[in-house]
Amino acid sequence: MSEVLNVEEIFAKNVFTLGKMKERLPKNVFKEVKRVMEQGGELSLTSADVVAKAMKDWAVENGATHYTHWFQPLTGITAEKHDSFVSHPDEEGRMLMEFSGKELIKGEPDASSFPSGGLRATFEARGYTAWDITSPAFLKEAATGVILCIPTAFCSYKGEALDKKTPLLRSMEAISEQALRIVHLFGNTGATRVIPSVGAEQEYFLVDSEKALKRDDLIFAGRTLFGAPAPKGQELEDHYFGVIRERIGAYMKDLNEELWKLGVTAKTQHNEAAPAQHELAPIYETANIAVDHNQLIMETMKRVAGHHGMRCLLHEKPFAGVTGSGKHDNWSLTTDNGVNLLDPGDTPNENIQFLLVLACIMKAVDTHADLLRQSASDPGNDHRLGACEAPPAIISIFLGEQLEDVVKQLVETGEANNLIEGGTLQTGVSTLPDFQKDATDRNRTSPFAFTGNKFEFRMVGSSDSVASPNTTLNSIVAEAFCEAADVLEKADDFDMAVHDLIKEYMTKHQRIIFNGDGYSEEWVREAARRGLPNISSMVEAAGTITTDKAVKLFERFGIFTRAELESREEILYENYAKTINIEALTMIEMSSKQIIPAVVKYTKELADTVNSVKSAGADASVYESLLKDICAKLARMQKALEDLKEVENTATSMKEGKEQAYFYREKVMAAMEALRIPADELEMVVDKKVWPFPTYGDLLFEV
Ligand code: ADP
Ligand code: MG
């Protein structure tokens, strides 16, 4: 029997929770902290000193030697610079560990090497980090020792956001303010805040690290750039929800334990569709904390994989031909007195507040489908969206039969008197219970699906931060709420006005509803007919954040200034170009130094065989035709390699920016694909013993 794990005891062991603060802080300081958490504002410096001391004492008692302002620059991952608590020794050489309120609240890291898209000139290299008091501090246990991590936002000297957290926090305030106007209109005057909640399901691949480290593409690009399909893929559908193998199970056990210690509510785990693919989902929580926790989940997944001799691949498409990885972003809105605005209740057709919220979300998603699409784009996700597995690149909303019917009735007649009932599902076995059927069935092909009491945005890439999608969602819905409240607050007859507004919004934006198969060719044509945008790549999507429509939206709610948006667009182009550049260089290197030399060696063996067979007087025609075939493929590969080198040279000589990004997307990517074809064909005919790195079969089935 294995040791019994006391989950209740270890949960949040490494988190400076509200509970620990209550224990360790004087009453008045604790009250002040709670007030700032709930209502905003700043902690006084005297209180900050008290909090800092309590936090440091707790951290040191638990082995911490350093602290760090933990932030999320525009690289999409987290950043940290460790400072020890060590202070100047006194005359007798004694040193006391120190940490002041000022150090807790603000930091000034040299930030010149983070992407800023021109917002911060190098002579003003400083960035400023500020404690996000609503996300608890935690201890990270790593090889460096125990580090106290303080979640922070990261801004420039002029207050421009240089990170993903600042705009997210701004968007949470915006949606709270606008949603409150709506709930107040419906009589819930007790609500003082509306909080977006997020639950992000995380997909990932695990491969053996010894094998992975033999592949430069996995090392440098995080995905395979070559690789013929293994004889088996996912066609038997035997991996999804399958029994978890021992090695993977041991990993999941450790991963859960590490996450629970960090206060992350790791909840579900299962095998996913592709071989070697898995998923973990935590319980949903306040959006900014969920975003922080998702970063911790990704980081912990990678770290724990190392302890098990494995590598965790978070890339959206690590292997061609099998399903890629995403991150379903479950999102809902709840008032601080406990009402979920997305809960339809048993009779959604009579729940006017719900119908108005739904109408506003339809309007928001239809008006800003391009922004939502953009918020889920990264270079890896381009391989996934629209590739017949993940949601398509076209944004649409799935409501399920019952709600779709309610919308239809409202659009047609202004009333919704009927409700399609879920009915019961009969199992046909007398000893099994019959099920009450859920009226919102699942549709896995929809990018934005209503699932009971939340929306599930399924486009987000597995390696991406969920900050941007939630910032965008909060912002666009805040706008729709604001416009609705503007009308309703002035109405003489509220009931009539709500009724008209719901009908107007639903009629105008019903084109965004689609309940059919999102993977079909037919939908692509139908969406075009409806005028819905179909943005095929990250590069095409980047420009959507600086259109007049977008700038107006984000400036109106104080989420981004035009300058911030323009800088972010620049960073997107740079990030794309750099990513593809690394991939192209890796392909060139693997081709020139590994694949071609291996094939050359093999052809020599074959040629020698041809000669000896011939001189022995036997028929060598089989060997000759094999040799000819390989030589022909090699010639094609060599030519494709030269072509890739040429476009790659052109690309690197271009000025950074939009044009360069487009060149990478259109020319370099095409040349990379052309190089992969003959290389993969060669893999299929060359002796496995001479092939220079592990194959798909080795990686996907022998973990
Ligand atoms: P499935 O794969 O069936 O969609 P999972 O259990 O894997 O379900 O993930 C569902 C996610 O949605 C979890 O993170 C869960 O906590 C989250 N979730 C559930 N209810 C809400 C809600 N009201 N708001 C936001 N997220 C929610
Ligand atoms: Mg799931």
Topology:
Elements: H1 7-10, H2 18-24, H3 27-39, H4 45-61, E1 64-70, E2 83-84, H5 101-105, E3 106-107, E4 128-131, E5 138-142, E6 145-155, H6 165-185, E7 194-200, E8 202-208, H7 209-212, H8 216-220, H9 246-261, E9 266-271, E10 277-282, E11 285-286, H10 287-307, E12 310-313, E13 329-335, H11 352-367, H12 369-375, E14 397-398, H13 401-413, E15 424-425, E16 435-436, E17 448-450, E18 455-457, H14 467-490, H15 494-509, H16 521-530, H17 538-542, H18 548-556, H19 562-615, H20 621-653, H21 658-685, H22 696-701
Parallel strand pairs: 1-6, 14-17
Antiparallel strand pairs: 1-2, 3-4, 4-6, 5-6, 7-11, 7-13, 8-10, 8-12, 9-10, 13-18, 15-16, 17-18
Helix pairs in contact: 6-14, 9-10, 11-14, 11-15, 12-14, 13-15, 14-15, 19-20, 19-21, 20-21
Magnesium ion binds next to β10.
Give an overview of the whole structure.
The protein is α+β, with helices and mostly antiparallel strands and 703 residues long. The protein has four domains: 154 residues, Glutamine synthetase, N-terminal domain (Ubiquitin-like (UB roll)); 255 residues, no CATH class; 125 residues, Glutamine synthetase/guanido kinase, catalytic domain (Creatine Kinase, Chain A, domain 2), CATH 3.30.590.10; 127 residues, Four Helix Bundle (Hemerythrin (Met), subunit A), CATH 1.20.120. The protein has 22 helices and 18 strands. Strands 1, 2, 3, 4, 5 and 6 form a six-stranded mixed sheet that branches. It has a six-stranded mixed sheet with strand order 11-7-13-18-17-14. It has a four-stranded antiparallel sheet with strand order 9-10-8-12. α13 crosses α15, α19 runs antiparallel to α20 and α19 runs parallel beside α21. The mean pLDDT is 93. The structure holds adenosine-5'-diphosphate (ADP) and magnesium ion. Magnesium ion binds next to β10. The site of magnesium ion (MG) has 3 residues, from β10.
